[in-house]
């Protein structure tokens, strides 16, 4: 089968690596890709958010499947255009992608489907925002209603900061969702969906803050690990029963069946599982850790979902090792990343046993050198017998790579490795 992956980042590099390992995938392309992806497959420099351009490329390549990575092309209707052209696509339509594109829409779906989530209020002006903040109290959770690449959420005990974030969203013409704060550890679960059926991947945990000990501003994600040894037995089954399937049924009843990845961002609170948010695509950087362990051929799984045949797909099989992925980011990320620095040590890191380097914000300069081209630059994934071993391999890979101003967290998966993640009494 011929597969085209849409997107420029680390998630897409992880998808490319997994698809390349699928014996049924005979031809693999990416648009637009990055320096790492272009060294492995043919890339095409098109606007990934232009539905007509994506359809034209997929038609020209005679693609049997198009996999859409990022949220922006989904919100732009790329999947709709491919479906109209008769090309199988893994990724939701514009209507179904509202689950991510609008936090308010997602809350409405969860209310109708009786999916457990945080209480929330939608605010369209400063007065409404102030009332909602006072109703829920600190810590305050303020979310931009639209797409914000994982950076539209502010969690703070400072009421003035919370209100200022809301006002920034209003000034940009948006609305905000203000929620009660959810206690407890967070879990990411990717659920492959075909509109009716669903198959869960292995749970992961990611790290949003830029600095160690979860300090500093939110980012798109600074690292992740999978699986989670501290999860209660039956966790995934409960999420499928109480979250994934009710959401799929509600979306189907609206006439917008959901095909693609339903990314469930969850908190395990003292009152049980609560949905923090939905995304309509693979998460980055969790994908890099999760797919590193997947033994089942990915192409066949995604094609089955695209064709509505997930109930016939084989049961998933996983490598027994643990995966830890650590993100290396540009100087001054997330505020104002410095681009252009030459990256050293990539081949040395890739040569280490159990280490893989996935490119996100990279490009090639006129001299043929790989350079920094984005905020999050690389994800270095280590596979090991347990969290300690996987961490050691990931950080050995990090130590081999350098550029001016490079930064990374040193504590990815550390608490889990040390058995320090505790679920509250009464958690179920």
From TrEMBL:
This is Phosphoribosylamine--glycine ligase. Keywords: ATP-binding, Ligase, Nucleotide-binding, Purine biosynthesis. Belongs to the GARS family. It comes from the Bacteria. It holds the Pfam family GARS_N. Pathway: Purine metabolism; IMP biosynthesis via de novo pathway; N(1)-(5-phospho-D-ribosyl)glycinamide from 5-phospho-alpha-D-ribose 1-diphosphate: step 2/2. It is an enzyme of class 6 (ligase). Its EC number is 6.3.4.13. The keyword Transferase does not apply. NCBIfam families: purD (TIGR00877). It comes from Paeniglutamicibacter antarcticus.
């Amino acid at each position: 089968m011929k597969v085209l992956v849409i997107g420029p980042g680390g998630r897409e590099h992880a998808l490319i690596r997994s698809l390349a390992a699928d014996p049924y995938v005979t031809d693999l392309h990416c648009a637009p890709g990055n320096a790492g992806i272009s060294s492995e497959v043919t890339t095409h420099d098109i606007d990934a958010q232009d539905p007509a351009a994506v359809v034209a490329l997929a038609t020209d390549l005679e693609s049997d499947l198009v996999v859409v990575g990022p949220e922006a092309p989904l919100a732009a209707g790329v999947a709709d255009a491919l479906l109209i052209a008769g090309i199988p696509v893994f990724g939701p339509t514009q209507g179904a992608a509202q689950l991510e594109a609008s936090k308010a829409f997602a809350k409405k779906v969860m209310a109708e489907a009786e999916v457990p989530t945080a209480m929330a209020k939608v605010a369209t002006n400063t007065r409404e925002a102030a009332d909602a903040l006072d109703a829920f109290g600190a810590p305050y959770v303020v979310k931009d209603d639209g797409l914000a690449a994982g950076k539209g959420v502010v969690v703070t005990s400072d009421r003035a900061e919370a209100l200022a974030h809301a006002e920034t969203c209003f000034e940009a013409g948006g609305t905000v969702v203000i929620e009660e704060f959810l206690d407890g550890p967070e879990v990411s679960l990717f659920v492959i969906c075909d509109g009716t059926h669903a198959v869960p991947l292995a749970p992961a945990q990611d790290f949003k803050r830029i600095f160690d000990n979860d300090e500093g501003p939110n980012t798109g994600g600074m690292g992740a690990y999978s699986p989670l040894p501290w999860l209660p037995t039956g966790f995934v089954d409960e999420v499928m029963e109480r979250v994934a399937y009710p959401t799929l049924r509600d979306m189907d009843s609206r006439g917008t069946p959901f095909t693609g990845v339903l990314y469930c961002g969850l908190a395990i609170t003292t009152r049980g599982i609560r949905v923090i948010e939905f995304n309509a695509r693979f998460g980055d950087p969790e994908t890099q850790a999760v797919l590193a362990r997947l033994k089942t051929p990915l192409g066949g799984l995604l094609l089955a979902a695209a064709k509505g045949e997930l109930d016939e797909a084989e049961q998933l099989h996983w490598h027994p090792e643990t995966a830890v992925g650590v993100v290396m980011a540009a100087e001054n990320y997330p505020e104002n990343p410095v681009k252009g620095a030459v990256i050293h040590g990539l081949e040395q890191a890739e040569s280490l046993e159990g280490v893989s380097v996935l490119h996100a914000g990279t490009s090639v300069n006129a001299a043929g050198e790989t350079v920094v081209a984005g905020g999050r630059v690389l994800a270095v994934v280590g596979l090991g017998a347990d969290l300690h071993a996987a961490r050691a391999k990931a950080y050995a890979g990090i130590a081999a790579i350098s550029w001016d101003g490079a930064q990374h967290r040193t504590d990815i998966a550390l608490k889990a490795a040390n058995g320090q993640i505790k679920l509250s009494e009464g958690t179920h």
